[in-house]
Amino acid sequence: MTTLMTPDELEARLRDVGRRRYHNLHPFHRLLHDGKLDFGQVQAWALNRYYYQAMIPVKDSSILARMEEAELRRVWRQRIIDHDGDHDGEGGIARWLTLTDGLGLDREYVTSLRGLLPATRFAVDAYVHFVREKSLLEAIASSLTEMFSPGIIGERVAGMLKNYDFVSEQTLAYFEKRLTQAPRDADFALDYVKKNARTPEQQEAAIRALEFKCNVLWVQLDALYFAYVDPKMAYPGAFAPKETR
Ligand SMILES: O=C(O)c1cc(C(=O)O)c2c(n1)C(=O)C(=O)c1cc(C(=O)O)[nH]c1-2
């Protein structure tokens, strides 16, 4: 039988999920940050991750639509603005396209999603469906991977700038903003989960939601590894690197 945890015990359990399952532990990220990938492999990462970026405001709009309190919506809507911006060319999605531009990928090709691995699409879509179908508490808990992202982003930016001549601070500007946005978002979501998971079942559901989200991130890297690192078995029609440096 599960017993009720204190809010701080719940937080400790949630942090433990990240320690064991967050995607910083994935071999593809180690290769990316340590400069062990070639140009085409980094292109494949940026191109696939574009879909995650593009769908984040879609999933946040679903969460927003389920919030019945103006106070909550007022906070959550900032996430959508962060990614979409207030005008064309602003916001996180536009900054991600600066990265794919910098990596020599054609914008029309990236945004058409023609080169996407199917597993990327399935994983990201699963996240969008999850927040629609599960409770609001689980939907909010699933965003808590952001508690762990500043660590990996710091490591990634430093590692990529040091190891690759084809990225610059300008092309990696997306991550700079996330270093302040992610902790702000994660603090709010953690506080919500700690206050609103009031039964052992709800607490367990919040932990499962965070595990699910870790899987969403992890399997995207599995797919990249399989298609572009080993055994390099690309999906027919998916992005095929032309140039290696
Ligand atoms: O670079 C990363 O490793 C990373 C991880 C995560 C995450 O942990 O979900 C997000 C992001 N970046 C990110 O840029 C982002 O906008 C974002 C939104 C969310 C979310 O679940 O709402 N996670 C993440």
TrEMBL record:
Keywords: Oxidoreductase, PQQ biosynthesis
Domain Thiaminase-2/PQQC: start-end pairs: 12-222
EC number annotated for this UniProt entry: 1.3.3.11
Pathway listed: Cofactor biosynthesis; pyrroloquinoline quinone biosynthesis
Reactions performed catalytically: 6-(2-amino-2-carboxyethyl)-7,8-dioxo-1,2,3,4,7,8-hexahydroquinoline-2,4-dicarboxylate + 3 O2 = pyrroloquinoline quinone + 2 H2O2 + 2 H2O + H(+)
Matches recorded under Pfam families: TENA_THI-4
Family per record: Belongs to the PqqC family.
Biological function: Ring cyclization and eight-electron oxidation of 3a-(2-amino-2-carboxyethyl)-4,5-dioxo-4,5,6,7,8,9-hexahydroquinoline-7,9-dicarboxylic-acid to PQQ.
Record-given protein name: Pyrroloquinoline-quinone synthase
Species in which this protein is naturally found: Ancylobacter pratisalsi
Taxonomic placement: Bacteria, Pseudomonadati, Pseudomonadota, Alphaproteobacteria, Hyphomicrobiales
The encoding gene: pqqC
